[in-house]
Amino acid sequence: MTEEKNDIRGRRRQAILAAAAEEFCRNGFEHARMDAIAVRAGIGKSTIYEYFPSKNALLTAVGEQMAERVFVELSGILHSNIAFRDKMISYMRFLTSVLAQMGQKLLVLFREDSSMTFFEEMSHQYAEQQYELLEAEVVRAQQAGELRADIDPIVVATLLASLTSTMFKAREVPLESLVDVLMRGMGA
């Protein structure tokens, strides 16, 4: 019975998080309403507070869940058994698609000072994890002879992490072209 109860609680928590993500992205943090989240989740408003003590705690949980999903997917891409060049193309495609899907919704949240601080803190923490993944993959590629041994993995990771922001500029540059230019400069 306890396992079934935990399963129900887990599903209810996920329903609350999904409903909250939609509400926050649609209306922003300041204008998001807990009763609207409850309706979306199919529960009573007081049930939300059994899981999350405040709207801030709920926003934190939503952000952490989103970041964790992205991190798990990125880890899968970077730990895949394919050439470094192909990993970087997959990495950039994935991040570009995530940013495109979430971009407009997150702009609603970024307009508000209260949620901006939260997302700055979360993005800093996430960026550190991303850099560590990239650095480890650069070292692996160096050891495999795919990249020159004399380049600094931290510099390469920083460069690769910054490339996705270029995808939203006025110029359309194919990901493959960006990666190929980098590979010619870093290749063994």
Oligomerization state of this entry? single chain
Low-confidence stretches: none
Overall shape: it is elongated
Estimated structural class: mainly alpha
Helix percent reads over 70%
User: Major sheet: size, sense and barrel closure?
Assistant: none
Q: What is the CA–CA distance across the termini? A: 59 Å
Overall radius of gyration: 20 Å
Number of strands: 0
Q: What is the chain-wise order of helices and strands?
A: HHHHHHHH
Provide a brief overview of the structure.
The chain has 8 helices and no strands. It has 188 residues and is mostly helical.
Architecture overview:
This protein is mainly alpha-helical and 188 residues long. It has eight helices and no strands. The chain has helices at residues 2-31, 34-41, 45-51, 55-78, 84-110, 113-143, 153-163, 175-186. The termini are far apart. The model has no long low-confidence stretch (mean pLDDT 83).
